[in-house]
Amino acid sequence: MGIAVGDAIGLPYEGMSPRRIHRLAKFPLQHGLLPGRGMVSDDTDHAIFVSQALIAGKGDVNQFRRALAWRLRFWLLCLPAGVGFATLRSIMRLWLGLSNSGVYSAGNGPCMRSGMIGAILAHDVQARRVHVQASTMMTHTDPKAFAGAMAIAEVVARIVNGQWPGKPQLDELIAVLTDISPDADWQLAVTRINAACKAPDSMLAAQQYFGGQHGVSGYALHTVPFALIAWYQHYGDYRATIEAVVRAGGDTDTVAAIAGAMAGASVGLPGIPAEWRSGLADCPHSGSYLTALGRRICKHDETVSLRFSFLLFPRNMLFLVIVLLHGLRRLLPPY
Ligand SMILES: [Mg+2]
Fold first, then answer.
1. Cα–Cα distance between 266 and 234 in angstroms, integer?
2. Which of 6, 148, 152, 246 could be cross-linked to 220 through a Cys-Cys bond (beta carbons 3.0 to 4.6 Å apart)?
């Protein structure tokens, strides 16, 4: 729910500059895709597929890989409006039957689905790493994509398994992030996360390091650090976390989905604004399906379906029309 609500609140501002958002958005934010209602995008779809595949895989990473690959193949058949270029190419490779489907890219695709791996495998550090690796390599082979995805899984796991019952010390967070990957660019990003969190205005520093005048990009080492800083600075306040992400512009839906994974895990369901939760108007990945899937993950209800729903196809056709209308609205002032 933390992922889906962040995705839906951030979606109407995707691709906008912080300057334009400042003129266009009304804070406190409400759902804006439809009047008072929001819909989800690829971020939530992928988080759901990973969750379904993890349950179906029962701890076997090969079974997990197969289950996730089929869901991604079917997902592309349903013509999603927002699909990253690397994800598109890798799913086409999956359809061609290539076993090494991933392409060399450090886009944020794997990071949008790894929060759920951290939550579901919160008590098994080895399994977490293996499953994040499998999920990442299926679409993105650049080690920076893996580092970003692993960082989100590790933070969410520590919140869910109780290692971090409250806001962790900055040193603790930085130590966890540092250990994730020796990649030089990742290490530089961690140094900057540390510097931003210590700065007098952390979100401004985050914007300077990872955002810029066009907003936060879809590069994993922009998206993930920005989401981490927003979660940390606004720890315990889901709404403030998401609003800080939206103000920064750029890939707002994905950054909000990733920050929302961590903030949602920190505050739990009651901490996510009720009107944001009830305003989700989607199908088949509806608010009630998310809640049901949560029950299945917690083994409270084994009857909840894990099947891919081809209702996504008509839904995506409708979604496309709504997104096009939004595109037209954006041509109008205020600029
Ligand atoms: Mg998206």
1. 11
2. 148
Percent of the chain at pLDDT above 70? 100
Cα(306) to ligand 1 centroid in Å equals: 22
Name which CATH class applies to 2-330: mainly alpha
Domain ranges of the chain: 2-330
Cα–Cα nearest to 50, from 108, 103, 121? 121
Using the mean position of ligand 1's atoms as its centre, give its distance from the Cα of residue 149 in Å: 16
Task: Determine the angle formed by the axes of helices 170-178 and 143-160, rounding to 10 degrees.
Answer: 140
Backbone φ/ψ region at 107: left (φ over 0), alpha (ψ -120 to 50), beta: beta
The C-alpha atoms of residue 84 and residue 63 are separated, in whole angstroms, by 25
Q: Which pLDDT band, with edges at 50, 70 and 90, does 96 fall under? A: very high
Going from the Cα of 249 to the center of ligand 1, the distance in angstroms, rounded, reads 13
Please say if the pLDDT value at position 151 is more than 90. Answer: yes
Q: What is the pLDDT of residue 55?
A: 97
**Interval 1-55: pLDDT, tens:** 999 999 999 999 999 999 999 999 999 999 999 999 999 999 999 999 999 999 9
Dist. CA 312 → ligand 1 center (Å)? 15
Select from 126, 107, 128 the least CA-distant residue to 117.
Answer: 128
Angle at 257 between CA 169 and CA 105, to 5 degrees: 95
CB 119, CB 155: distance < 8 Å: no
Centroid of ligand 1 to alpha carbon of 162 (angstroms): 29
Q: Residue 147 in contact with residue 190, Cβ under 8 Å?
A: no
Whether pLDDT at 335 is above 90 = no
Distances (CA, A) of 302 to 122, 218, 297: 20, 36, 9
Please tell me the distance between residue 163's alpha carbon and the centre of ligand 1 in angstroms. 30
Q: Report how far ligand 1's centroid is from the alpha carbon of 257 (Å).
A: 8
Backbone angles phi, psi at 140, to 5 degrees: -130, 125
